[in-house]
Design a protein that fits this description.
The termini are close together. Helix 2 runs parallel beside helix 3. Helix 4 links the parallel strand 4 and strand 5. This protein has one domain: Response regulator (Rossmann fold). The longest helix is centred in the N-terminal third of the chain and has 13 residues. By secondary structure, the protein is α/β, with parallel strands linked by helices.
Length: 125
């Protein structure tokens, strides 16, 4: 199977860069882009066609919840995982309504979790 194409969206450049470095360490993922806002991520998603969008909940302008709704409402939508310093519960009505497939605290993103995410959504034959 081809690598999972990942778009990272966060208004913190330092966090984006750290997450991109982590993604490079996990087999089966390939970072294809990064964005600092919801609006920018929607534009990039059209051209890059990511399989996975790691999307900060709190973004300037268009927040992560609305961005997620718009991303999953496209033909051949990506899998969206919301990330946040204070990640809301997966059963939070705002998260459920966003169409995101998962939520994760930024502090809990590590190699093991990324590998599990890969196995969960893109299992190997």
């Amino acid at each position: 199977m081809a690598d999972v194409r990942v778009l990272v969206v966060d208004d913190s450049r330092a966090f984006r860069e750290a997450l991109l470095e982590l993604i490079d360490l996990v087999g089966g993922f390939r970072a294809v882009g990064q964005a600092a806002s919801g609006e920018e991520s929607l534009e990039l998603a059209q051209t890059l066609a990511p399989d996975l969008v790691l999307l900060d909940v709190r973004l300037p302008g268009l927040d992560g919840l609305e961005t997620s709704r718009r991303l999953v409402d496209t033909p051949d939508p990506p899998t969206v995982v919301l990330v946040s310093t204070d990640a809301p519960a997966t059963d939070d009505v705002r998260v459920v309504g966003s169409g995101a497939s998962a939520v994760r605290s930024k502090a809990e993103i590590d190699l093991e979790w990324l590998s599990e995410l890969r196995r969960r959504f893109w299992p190997q034959p």
